[in-house]
């Protein structure tokens, strides 16, 4: 019997396969810590539900005694496995400092399961895959329905989910979030279908501009799906005859009308970082080159929204942490990389 069993996942949404592994964890340890991934992410077709909503689905499927033995550990994605592993270990140590023997419940499904090998000292409780269902199939059926046909749309999958999940999905379909996520889901499906016949999956290259002035950062709100209405740093796709530097300045000017002289921008450039996590974008494999500029205490350059931006604003650095759930894809983590918002783990 382990002191603690750890179960890691995103649970978007919770289904019976998840619950089977959770029951194995409960049978293997006195207490279970569920590491709830993708915490504080903005809603998207891949991450439509908040950490608290997913926790309620899972706990609602347990009996009272079992529910009392389960603790939730919200965990942001980080898009950096080494940092993420340290954060998970730190969170578990804080919740269970006395635990001497720790088990990690899971099964090797595909490349996304490699994290199970990243925790030496924790004994793997290897469990065969439970059933054939996965959360992606549930989300596709769900977003392909309508508020009035959710139960019918999920009929073929209903036996694969606990009642707590089905009830939540029906209630959620009556909120304003549901049609907004459907719009994003349809856009992303069309986007992927456009290149589905390519001999190899494409790799997209983008650029982003993190511009700091008087300890404030220039942000936009996206005008279109994906991420419509979400906060982001200015950026976009590189064009055929551009360098990443040229593309960065062009995108910055198109979205914010920040058109400082190139020499001024060269002088303000502090660093360039590549963000290339395979899961950073739902549009497909997308690698971005983020340029960090610091204009110091000089006057704010004039800006206004245009092109793919519905709004542009200067936001104080100290306010960014409270806005984490409003950011598109990994843009909060991009800012964190340059500005140290969350502190090192």
Automatic annotation (TrEMBL):
The keyword RNA-binding does not apply. GO terms for molecular function: nucleotidyltransferase activity. PROSITE patterns: NUDIX. InterPro entries: Cyt_trans-like, NUDIX_hydrolase-like_dom_sf, NUDIX_hydrolase_dom, Rossmann-like_a/b/a_fold. Keywords: Nucleotidyltransferase, Transferase. The keyword Nucleotidyltransferase applies. It comes from the Bacteria. NCBIfam families: cyt_tran_rel. This is Cytidyltransferase.
């Amino acid at each position: 019997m382990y002191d603690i069993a750890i179960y890691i996942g995103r649970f978007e949404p919770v289904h019976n396969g998840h619950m089977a592994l959770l029951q194995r964890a409960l049978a293997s340890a006195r207490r279970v810590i569920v590491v709830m991934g993708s915490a504080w992410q903005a809603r998207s077709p891949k991450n439509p539900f908040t950490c608290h909503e997913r926790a309620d689905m899972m706990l609602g499927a347990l009996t009272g005694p079992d529910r009392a033995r389960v603790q939730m550990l919200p965990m942001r994605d980080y898009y950096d496995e080494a940092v993420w592993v340290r954060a998970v270990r730190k969170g578990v140590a804080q919740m269970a400092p006395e635990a001497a023997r720790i088990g990690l419940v899971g099964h090797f499904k595909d490349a996304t399961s490699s994290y199970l090998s990243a925790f030496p000292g924790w004994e793997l409780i290897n469990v065969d895959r439970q059933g054939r269902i996965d959360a992606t199939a549930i989300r596709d059926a769900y977003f392909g329905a309508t508020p009035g046909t959710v139960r019918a749309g999920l009929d073929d999958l209903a036996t694969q989910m606990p009642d707590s999940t089905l009830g939540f999905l029906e209630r959620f379909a009556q909120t304003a979030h549901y049609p907004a996520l459907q719009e994003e889901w349809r856009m992303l499906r069309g986007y992927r279908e456009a290149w589905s016949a390519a001999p190899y999956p494409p790799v997209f290259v983008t650029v982003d501009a993190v511009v700091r002035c008087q300890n404030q950062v220039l942000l936009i709100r996206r005008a279109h799906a994906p991420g419509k209405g979400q906060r982001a740093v200015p950026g976009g796709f590189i064009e055929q005859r551009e360098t990443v530097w040229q593309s960065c300045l062009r995108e910055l000017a198109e979205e914010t009308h920040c058109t400082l002289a190139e020499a001024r921008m060269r002088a303000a450039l502090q660093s360039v970082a590549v963000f290339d996590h395979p899961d950073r974008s739902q549009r497909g494999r997308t690698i971005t080159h983020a340029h960090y500029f610091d204009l110091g205490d000089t006057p704010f350059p004039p800006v206004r929204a245009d092109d793919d931006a519905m709004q542009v604003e200067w936001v104080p650095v100290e306010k960014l942490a409270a806005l984490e759930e409003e950011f598109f894809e990994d843009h909060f983590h991009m800012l964190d990389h340059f500005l140290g918002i969350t502190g090192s783990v």
